[in-house]
Design a protein that fits this description.
Helices cover 7% and strands 40% of the residues. It has four helices and 29 strands. A hairpin with a 4-residue loop joins strand 5 (77-78) and strand 6 (83-84). It is globular.
């Protein structure tokens, strides 16, 4: 009888016992490392790691302790969980961010002080065993800035052929973020094309059979109806061709010109064609191909997953992302631009747009020569800090690198850095203290 009374009581007590969430604590210290602003893990299995991945269970209570290690103003935020710390200034000042996780997934933490996320203060929060360590698995469609055909040199005009293949593919836009791009030859921007003044150029445009849209190409280097667009409106699975004479030297944009033209351009359908003058260009040590574009998404900047195109934002010229070479991290993480002290660098720079003018600038350098608006036979402007490039426009800049370090490519409308518009040029070599010398306090 006694057993019959006690057993149900014991079962009821066990069933009603609450389940407490796991509690996880991390400590991060802010620092400057390799020319970047970063978080460095302290203690446990993240000790010494730069921007460590924070691995936590589902439905866990997470505490992130932040210690200011460099004296500048910092914080840590995790918008996916509605969490943020206070901002702290001064070495060894500290603050705390606390949040509770939900289901498995991949999320981001970063510093919300303007410019700090772009400067390197960002890491991954990995929730649950099912989350992937590799993060975003989308295809890389970004165009390497070093992927440039060799110089034309001093040759006579001849017949050349250009093959463009238009495709519609989902690709990597930012960490954890995917977007359906429309491309020339599976890259954003399209291939860098290089011909000589006087060349007779045959263009073959093939629209992939898997496309959902008609595509075409308009070359600003072409004299003829629509720059070729009128005769290259190719339906899915079809090919259209035309031939033109490259009459004038210069650096020119090409892009899709199928209505709605701005829609095709913003989705990635733009590139550059260089028409070298007779005798070719002067020799330089390094050449890079960089193009700026805009992405208009329904979702707010920073949201993860598959993003969708917003016509309203395009028409109102309110992009969520600005990009160099097809992704917000194409020229910071995916591809590396390098030069050595004493070398001359040439950048072919264009703006696909479709809407925003760029104020192109390399932080820590001056352009020795700027071939304004892509004009190659006009005298270049000299000793220029920032050059303006219109949407659908291009410029060629040249400069000698004199001091080692990391130089940052930007549009000097600098708030655009916060939306992905930044690139790095890494210069190697011996430092000359006569040019630049940090002074100890």
């Amino acid at each position: 009888m006694l057993i019959g009374i006690l057993l149900p009581f014991q079962m009821a007590t066990a069933a009603s016992e609450p389940e407490y969430p796991a509690e996880v604590t991390f400590t991060l210290r802010t620092a400057v490392a390799e020319g970047k602003l970063v978080y460095i893990g302290q203690g446990g299995n993240i000790d010494g790691q730069v921007n460590p991945t924070l691995r936590v269970p589902e439905n866990a209570l997470v505490q992130v302790n932040l210690i200011n290690g460099d004296g500048a103003m910092h914080d840590v935020v995790a918008d996916a969980f509605g969490a943020r710390s206070d901002r702290v200034t001064g070495r060894d000042a500290s603050t705390v961010m606390v949040f509770r996780t939900g289901k498995a997934g991949e999320f981001r933490y970063w510093c919300s002080v303007p410019g700090h996320r772009a400067a390197g203060m960002e890491g991954l929060i990995l929730v649950g065993k099912g989350a992937s360590d590799a993060g975003d698995k989308a295809a890389d469609l970004s165009h390497p800035p070093t992927d440039i055909p060799p110089a034309i040199g001093d040759r006579p005009p001849r017949d050349v052929s250009v093959d463009l293949h238009t495709t519609e593919k989902t690709g990597h836009l930012a960490d954890g973020t995917r977007y359906k791009f429309w491309t020339f030859n599976d890259q954003v921007p399209g291939p860098f094309l290089r011909v000589r003044q006087g060349d007779r150029v045959t263009v073959n445009l093939h629209n992939d059979k898997t496309s959902t849209m008609v595509h075409s190409v308009d070359f600003h280097a072409v004299t003829g109806p629509g720059g070729g667009a009128e005769v290259t409106q190719a339906a899915p699975g079809k090919t259209a061709s035309f031939r033109f004479r490259a009459l004038k030297p210069g650096l020119y944009v090409y892009h899709c010109a199928t209505p709605m033209v701005a829609h095709h351009i913003t989705n990635g359908m733009y590139g550059l064609i260089l028409v070298e003058p007779a005798g070719g260009l002067a020799k330089v040590d390094r050449e890079f191909y960089v193009m700026q574009g805009e992405i208009y998404t329904t979702e707010a900047h920073g949201q993860h997953g598959d993003l969708s195109f917003s016509l309203d934002k395009l028409l109102n010229e309110r992009p969520e992302y600005y990009i160099f070479n097809g992704a917000s991290d194409a020229l910071t993480k995916t591809h590396r631009m390098e030069a050595s002290v004493g070398e001359t660098v040439r950048i072919f720079f264009g703006v696909g747009g479709p809407n925003a003018t760029s104020s192109f600038h390399v932080i820590g350098e001056m352009f020795d020569r700027v071939y304004h608006e892509g004009s190659l036979i006009s005298p270049p402007m000299r000793d220029v800090q920032t050059t303006t490039v219109a949407p659908g426009g291009a410029t060629m800049v040249e400069f000698k690198v004199d001091f080692p370090g990391r130089y940052i490519l930007v549009d000097h409308a600098l708030s655009r850095m916060e939306r992905g518009l930044v690139g790095f040029l890494h210069v190697n070599g011996k430092a000359d203290k006569d040019i630049f010398e940090p002074l100890a306090p």
